[in-house]
């Protein structure tokens, strides 16, 4: 017991870290998805490493009318795919690394800026949030956004402490890279602008130009693409913001999704409770700003409040139903605000009670996330390996029959194992089915129909 009190902070940190990793990584091989997005950037990586075919384009914003972002995420994945020899289990390693990085950087940075207790409260909320427990295990572009937010805070902290040109360039690198992970990172631009206007570092307008030009330099892949393709992406970008998606706008449709996103705090999916939470965050922000004397933190929370004010207007202008992950960028700001408020302005017993309530209401929503994914990477890999075990090394084609997107992920795995798949209509056809048909070879929920003439 004496050892615990002597090393209390280290013990609490390790316990929370273990719980954080357990929630995210337990049974991760069987949980992780390998769908359309994962197949897309995995194929890009394969083309780079196998064929020397580099890409200039990353994810596309929203839909077929949207514009493209730069491919920095694809290149970030390359070391992981090299390690696994192009097997998509690389995504498991990637997710693991991102989560460990997020936890470690959060702890170190937030302890430095806001203190140990606030940092631990932030990580406690993040660890037990059912919203983040789900999204933290999806290997795709948005998983980078919380990390990008931390790097933005770190860059602004460096500028506040030491206003050098180097630190402004670092800020430009952070903003310029992470905007290409998902366009919702534009909220970090708003936060940064308000924070800089509040703190007004010396020569901020001159140094800000260095940040701006650094962001522009990171557009080089898209500029090269445009020169090669008659300015296609620039045209898409301009048309998107001038003409929108071409669909009628609904100013209030985002509220349904927002209600789902804040469910970890409301427990019940109810729009009224969601709006009460929205108002509560405003009250907490205004109270904290009024009470705070430290210039950095006062500016930080003022910029956070600006984001929260902007939220309904931005999504109303968007005018379409967003996905729940469109709110990912906002949660780090809200969590740090709530954590700081709990630590500084609430009675300890009351704060502990609220945290316990948050944990106990989220655990039932986290537990189902541990189940194996019947359509996940592991199952798809088993289907393809089963085909390799049963079929001769002779050309064949493969068809997929089932719910929408049944085929996603499989084609990459067929290329990975270099199976003799042909598009020739005269070769025998293997069928992969959901549901399973009579006489199929069964692998999980998938049935495989194999013509007798190509069986080993």
Approximate strand percentage: under 5%
Task: Determine the structural class based on helices, strands and strand pairing.
Answer: mainly alpha
pLDDT averaged residue by residue: 93
Largest sheet: 4 strands, mixed
Instruction: Count all strands and give the number.
Output: 4
Q: Work out the helix count.
A: 22
Low-confidence stretches: none
Strand order of the largest sheet: 1-2-4-3
The H/E string reads HHHHHHHHHHHHHHHHHHHHHEHEEE
Number of domains: 2
Distance between the termini: 64 Å
Radius of gyration: 24 Å
Percent helix range: 55-70%
Question: Based on CA inertia axes, which overall geometry fits?
Answer: globular
Which features does this protein show?
22 helices; glycosyltransferase; 4 strands; transferase; cell membrane; 64% helix; 456 residues; mainly alpha; 2 domains; LipidA_mod_glycosyltrf_83
Overview of this protein structure:
By secondary structure, this protein is mainly α. It has 22 helices and 4 strands. The chain has helices at 2-6, 8-25, 28-31, 36-51, 72-83, 90-114, 116-128, 130-135, 145-161, 165-178, 186-199, 204-217, 220-228, 232-243, 254-261, 263-266, 271-291, 295-318, 331-345, 348-366, 377-390, 410-416, and strands at residues 397-401, 429-433, 441-443, 446-449. It has 2 domains: 2-370, no CATH class; 377-454, no CATH class. Strand 1 (397-401), helix 22 and strand 2 (429-433) form a beta-alpha-beta unit. Helix 4 (36-51) crosses helix 5 (72-83), helix 11 (186-199) packs antiparallel against helix 18 and helix 17 (271-291) packs across helix 19 (331-345). The chain crosses the membrane at residues 89-107, 113-131, 138-156, 168-197, 204-225, 272-289, 301-319, 325-342, 349-370. It is found in: Cell membrane. Keywords: Cell membrane, Glycosyltransferase, Membrane, Transferase, Transmembrane, Transmembrane helix. Its main location: membrane.
């Amino acid at each position: 017991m004496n050892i615990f009190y002597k090393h209390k902070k280290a013990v609490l940190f390790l316990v929370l870290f273990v719980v954080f990793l357990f929630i995210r990584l337990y049974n991760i091989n069987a949980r992780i998805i390998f769908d359309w997005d994962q197949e897309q950037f995995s194929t890009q990586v394969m083309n780079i490493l196998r064929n020397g075919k580099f890409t200039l384009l990353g994810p596309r914003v929203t839909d077929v009318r949207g514009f493209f972002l730069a491919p920095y995420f694809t290149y970030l994945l390359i070391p992981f795919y090299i390690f696994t020899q192009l097997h998509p289990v690389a995504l498991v390693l990637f997710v693991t690394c991102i989560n460990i990085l997020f936890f470690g950087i959060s702890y170190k940075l937030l302890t430095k800026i806001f203190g140990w207790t606030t940092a631990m409260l932030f990580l406690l909320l993040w660890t037990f949030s059912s919203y983040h427990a789900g999204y933290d295990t999806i290997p795709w572009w948005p998983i980078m956004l919380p990390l990008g937010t931390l790097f933005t805070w770190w860059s602004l902290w460096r500028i506040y402490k030491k206003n050098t040109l180097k630190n402004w360039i670092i800020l430009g690198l952070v903003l310029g890279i992470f905007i290409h992970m998902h366009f919702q990172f534009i909220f970090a631009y708003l936060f940064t602008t308000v924070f800089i206007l509040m703190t007004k570092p010396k020569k901020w307008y001159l140094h800000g130009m260095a940040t701006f030009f650094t962001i522009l330099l990171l557009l080089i892949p898209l500029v090269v693409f445009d020169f090669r393709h008659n300015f296609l992406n620039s045209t898409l970008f301009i048309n998107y913001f001038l003409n929108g998606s071409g669909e009628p706008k609904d100013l209030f449709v985002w509220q349904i999704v927002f209600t789902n996103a804040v469910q970890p705090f409301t427990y019940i999916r109810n729009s009224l409770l969601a709006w009460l939470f929205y108002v509560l965050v405003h009250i907490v922000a205004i109270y904290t700003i009024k009470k705070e004397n430290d210039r950095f933190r006062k500016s930080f929370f003022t910029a956070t409040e600006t984001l929260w004010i902007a939220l309904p207007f931005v999504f109303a202008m968007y005018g379409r139903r967003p996905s729940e992950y469109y709110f990912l960028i906002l949660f780090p700001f809200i969590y740090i605000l709530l954590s700081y408020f709990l630590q500084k302005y609430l009675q300890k017993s009351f704060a502990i009670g609220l945290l316990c309530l948050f944990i106990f209401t989220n655990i039932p929503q986290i537990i189902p996330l541990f189940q194996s994914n019947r359509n996940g990477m592991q199952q798809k890999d088993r289907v393809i390996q089963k085909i390799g075990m049963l079929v001769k090394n002779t050309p064949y084609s493969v068809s997929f029959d089932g719910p929408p997107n049944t085929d996603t992920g499989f084609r990459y795995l067929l290329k990975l194992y270099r199976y003799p798949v042909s598009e020739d209509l005269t070769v025998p056809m293997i069928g992969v089915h959901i549901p399973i048909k009579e006489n199929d070879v069964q692998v999980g929920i998938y049935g495989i129909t194999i013509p007798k003439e190509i069986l080993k």
